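Re: [ENG-882] Designed sequences occasionally contain unexpected residues at chain ends

Forwarding the minimal case from QA. Structure tokens:
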């Protein structure tokens, strides 16, 4: 399973809730505190995210604590459409699956 990177600050109550959620679900995560770690703060800015908690799961970025969005991101991966090259989320670990690109309606098969 993809590791979760969670950007937090020392004072944000939602960050505590989010970490508790990740622990309860036994998701592997790396915490990066943007208040104590200047590198983490720069990474967060590079993602274009303004606040914490922000989650990075593979190439997917979730701003704000949303359990359903985190679970959805963990159950999928991002790939590029072979036709239009735009990014789309596809399910993970389901063997060979048929995908229809939401951008250009191109149909293709992929190993998930
Ligand atoms: Zn496409």
């Amino acid at each position: 399973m993809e590791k979760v990177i969670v950007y937090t600050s020392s004072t944000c109550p939602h960050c505590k809730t989010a970490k508790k959620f990740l622990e309860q679900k036994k998701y592997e995560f790396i915490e990066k505190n943007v208040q104590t770690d200047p590198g983490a703060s720069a990474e967060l800015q590079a993602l274009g995210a303004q606040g914490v908690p922000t989650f990075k799961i593979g190439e997917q970025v979730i701003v704000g604590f949303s359990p359903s969005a985190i679970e959805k991101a963990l159950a999928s991966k991002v790939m590029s459409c072979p036709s239009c090259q735009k990014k789309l989320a596809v399910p993970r670990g389901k063997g060979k699956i048929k995908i229809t690109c939401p951008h250009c309606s191109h149909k293709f098969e992929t190993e998930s």
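QA comment: On inspection the terminal residues look reasonable. The chain has a mean pLDDT of 94. Proposing we downgrade this to a documentation issue.
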